[in-house]
Amino acid sequence: MASSDRTTTVKAPLTAVWALVGDPVRWPEFQPALARAERVDEQRVRLFGGGSRSYSYTVRVTDLVPESRIAWTYDIAGKGGGSDDRRPAPGGTGGRGGAGRCGWGSRCG
């Protein structure tokens, strides 16, 4: 199975980044390809793409540690699926009371 590692540094407090990354229902707020999201149950969220091609898929959160880690699996009908694991990058800080540097690492496989 193919995999990749990448890190994105975000200049924002960890709590602010986590509020978006840690809640799949809010992913359309920072992922332009997503038009909307609907909670299916405590673990699953259905995501809907917009634009010229509409599509949807369900993510299932498999591990959630607030401000530390979120992992999920997904399946796109007819296209397969996979998993993703996001956590703060080593040395990333959230900063208290101000804008700190928060690095989020992503392991996709």
Work out the number of β strands: 7
Specify the overall morphology: globular
Order of helices and strands: EHEEEEEE
Q: List segments where confidence is low: pLDDT < 50 over at least 5 consecutive residues.
A: 93-109
Radius of gyration: 14 Å
Strand order of the largest sheet: 1-7-6-5-4-3-2
Report the portion of residues in β strands. Answer: over 45%
Judged by helices, strands and strand pairing, the structural class is mainly beta
Major sheet: size, sense and barrel closure? 7 strands, antiparallel
Tell me the helix content: under 10%
- Our measurement of the CA-to-CA distance between the termini, rounded to an integer number of angstroms, reads 7 Å
What is the typical, i.e. mean, pLDDT? 74
| Total number of helices | 1
What distinguishing features does this structure have?
109 residues, mainly beta, seven-stranded antiparallel beta sheet, 7% helix, disordered C terminus
Explain this structure:
The protein is mainly beta and 109 residues long. It has a domain at 34-87. Helices cover 7% and strands 51% of the residues. It has 1 helix and 7 strands; from the N terminus they run βαββββββ. It has one helix at residues 14-21; strands at residues 4-11, 34-39, 44-49, 55-65, 69-76, 80-88, 101-108. Strands 1-7-6-5-4-3-2 form a 7-stranded antiparallel β-sheet. A hairpin with a 3-residue loop joins β4 and β5. The radius of gyration is 14 Å and the shape is globular. The N and C termini lie close together (7 Å). The model is unreliable at 93-109 (pLDDT under 50).
A few lines on this structure:
This protein has one helix spanning 14-21, and strands spanning 4-11, 34-39, 44-49, 55-65, 69-76, 80-88, 101-108.
